[in-house]
Amino acid sequence: MIDLLGKILTNILIALYEPFGFSFLLSFLAMFFYLYAYEPITAGKGWKSAIVTWCLRFKKSVFFRKLFLLMFVTSLILFRTLLNRNLWMNPLSDVMGGWGIWETVDGEQKLTTECIENVIMMVPFSATVILTFRKKIGNRLKKILCFSGNIAFEFSLMIEILQLLLRLGTFQLSDIFYNTLGGVLGGLLYYAVMRGRKHL
What we know:
This protein has 200 residues and is mostly helical. It has a domain at 113-200. It contains 9 helices and 2 strands. Helix 6 crosses helix 8 (141-166), helix 6 (114-132) packs across helix 9 (173-199) and helix 8 runs antiparallel to helix 9 (173-199). The model has no long low-confidence stretch (mean pLDDT 85).
């Protein structure tokens, strides 16, 4: 059990540490597209004006900060699943994927935490999506769980299809299942935190 937790913690820390700077920069630049779409007058007067507008918007707008956080979490996931992957000769070599924490390699049982990490990966994503667009989603548990499950399923399916088309990893049904489960848990976590805040 300690080995399992240690391996999961190590992989999570590596997944956060390696792409942190890249994800932060990508999110920072992506928010400029948001500004040019919604504030073209102030953001389109040169790079100095654009940076000042970005900083003011980040300081004043809660939605802008939430959107930046969502972009950051999304880019972390994309770095882990697409942007930092090696090419695979046959992306359909393991369609079913791994469903447990043990896998057989050369006749030996080896511990794998991939399924647990796939669940954990989607928890902050779905929670951040709901936090960003909570006015449209509402506060009912059933609606939150349905939305979080759907958004995690669609995002995971998109990643798996891109992995298949670009040959970056293998297309696995188990990944879609565990990512969707993680999305639902993220929605449940968001609901629990919001209920706790109301009681406090």
